[in-house]
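Progress note, sequence design subtask.
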């Protein structure tokens, strides 16, 4: 598979340099008694690839859902290029945010090209009557849409498979098709939810190149991923969510070197973690208790 990542031209939804593309403030999402996301602030600027990492159940996908209108946050607000986002997925897509899903959501029995054409509906101006009557306006718009869809398929390296059924693509290519479909709405911000899940190392590397190429077209990217190598190679900034809260945010080196992040990934407590002195004290107390127990009468019966 060849991914055309050399094209440096600018995408129709491209952002102006220096622009704050996404500004999420104080986002909290509760499900009954469970607070899945708590008071999270996150910005994504033009030209950036930002990573969102955290252990399973940390609230990453819930946060994505709050950004894309799938959930209305219990508290907080989300702005895209300064405008508060409407609380409906299709309106968020029309505003300029596109996403892929953790579990692939393609139309399995449609062709690769048709899947991308579906992704273009928010950018197609032709109305229902024009489509039904199939007038000249419709045919012109349809031809332009096809041309753009084929460009996007070439961009992700799937143009040769345009007429294949989506369900017949290998898993890694289905993930790329999802990205092409998301790009078809001409976004300024692309959210990727675990884009390399289930991929082999070679596919992961081409996905990495593809994300860089998307950034180079002027589209900002926010990506959730469990593959740390992928994240730290790719991202300008990484935010770490743990138990719904943002624990750390910074460049790859800062985040990788933060001992709270290491602790969170190992499932150890990260708040008030004991220092060397406390550990030595506890070990001494345990040794003392053991010695006392060994001397105590009746210890054999206790075992
Ligand atoms: N619709 C929902 N109703 C109730 N609880 C939910 C809902 N969606 C998510 N949760 C809970 O919110 C918490 C965060 O889940 P979420 O899927 O956002 O985590 P995640 O970081 O994306 O995890 P993973 O890495 O495993 O995908 C979990 O405890 C989950 O069970």
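Output:
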């Amino acid at each position: 598979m060849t991914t055309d990542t050399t094209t440096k031209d600018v995408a129709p939804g491209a952002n102006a340099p220096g622009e704050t593309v996404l500004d999420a403030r104080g986002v909290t999402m509760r499900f009954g008694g469970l607070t899945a996301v708590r008071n999270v602030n996150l910005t994504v600027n033009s030209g950036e690839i930002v990573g969102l990492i955290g252990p399973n159940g940390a609230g990453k996908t819930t946060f994505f859902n709050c950004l894309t209108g799938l959930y209305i946050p219990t508290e907080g607000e989300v702005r895209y290029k300064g405008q508060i986002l409407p609380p409906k997925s299709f309106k968020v897509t029309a505003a300029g945010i596109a996403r892929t899903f953790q579990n692939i959501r393609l139309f399995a029995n449609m062709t690769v090209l048709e899947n991308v054409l579906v992704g273009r509906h928010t950018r197609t101006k032709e109305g229902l009557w024009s489509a039904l009557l199939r007038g000249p306006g419709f045919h012109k718009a349809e031809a332009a849409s096809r041309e753009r869809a084929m460009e996007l398929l070439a961009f992700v390296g799937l143009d040769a498979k345009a007429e294949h059924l989506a369900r017949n693509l290998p898993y890694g290519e289905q993930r790329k098709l999802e990205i092409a479909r998301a790009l078809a709405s001409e976004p300024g911000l692309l959210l990727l939810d675990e884009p390399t899940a289930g991929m082999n190392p070679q596919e992961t590397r081409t996905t990495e190149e593809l994300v860089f190429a998307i950034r180079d077209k002027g589209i900002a990217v926010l990506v959730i991923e469990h593959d740390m190598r992928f994240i730290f190679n790719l991202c300008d900034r990484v935010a770490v969510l743990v138990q719904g809260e943002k624990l750390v945010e910074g460049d790859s080196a800062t985040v990788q070197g933060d001992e709270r992040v290491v602790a969170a990934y190992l499932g150890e407590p990260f708040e008030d973690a004991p220092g060397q002195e406390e550990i030595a004290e506890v070990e001494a107390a345990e040794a003392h208790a053991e010695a006392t127990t060994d001397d105590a009468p009746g210890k054999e019966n206790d075992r």
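The beta strands are 20-31, 34-45, 49-53, 75-80, 83-84, 97-99, 189-193, 220-224, 237-242, 245-250. Work on this subtask will continue into the next period as scheduled.
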